[in-house]
Design a protein that fits this description.
Length: about 100
């Protein structure tokens, strides 16, 4: 289903495990792991904080919506797509990354 597709999200490793995407060979664009959105110490930032700072959007205040989180992640990706794509891992490394997450058999 996701073969040769770009999958965008924020801290998506657990999402991929829970969706049981064991046969997927996809390109991961995890905005939590890209330097474009890490803080000055190279640490991940919360999606809620990124949404507020870069998009002036307030999320996760009462109920948590995975749909809104996904839309925010896509918006953040598009905002810095060129920078994220230029630092992205090549396909071989990404497949190793997925294998380490037990997503590829």
């Amino acid at each position: 289903m996701l073969n040769d597709r770009i999958v965008v999200g924020h801290s998506i490793e657990n999402d991929l495990k829970h969706l049981n995407l064991t046969d997927s060979r996809c390109y991961i664009r995890d905005i939590a792991l890209t330097s474009a959105y890490m803080n000055g110490e190279g640490q991940k930032q919360k999606l809620k904080d990124l949404a507020q700072f870069y998009l002036n959007a307030r999320i996760q205040e009462a109920a948590h919506s995975s749909v809104i989180d996904a839309r925010i992640a896509i918006a953040l990706f598009r905002l810095k797509e060129d920078e994220i794509q230029s630092e992205s891992l090549d396909k071989v490394y990404e497949q190793m990354y997925l294998r380490d997450l037990y997503l590829i058999k």
